[in-house]
Amino acid sequence: MGLIEVIANDRLGTKVRVKCDSHDTVGDLKKMIAAQSGTKPEKIRLKKWYSEFKDHITLYDYEINDGMSLEMY
Fold first, then answer.
1. Domains of the chain
2. What pTM value is reported for the model?
């Protein structure tokens, strides 16, 4: 497993690249994105197509891999 890089795109021109562990939760990822973007972590919603990711599930369980891009709302 190890470190992966996830790209969060807010579709307004802002892309945030975050390095994290594949066993981090989605909530941990939101906190890392919030540290770089200045948005509060509880306001961030991460989606891929129509599925929204829940905070308590790990990135590994969602099969989020290195270089994957997520939509940030």
1. 3-72 (3.10.20.90)
2. 0.86
Contact 70, 47 (CB under 8 A): yes
What is the token pair recorded at 67?
A: 């270089």
Question: pLDDT tens for residues 34-67?
Answer: 998 888 989 999 998 888 999 899 988 988 888 8
Sign of the torsion angle spanned by Cα atoms 73, 29, 1, 51: negative
34: Cβ contacts below 8 Å, ≥ 6 apart: 40, 41, 44
SS3 28: helix
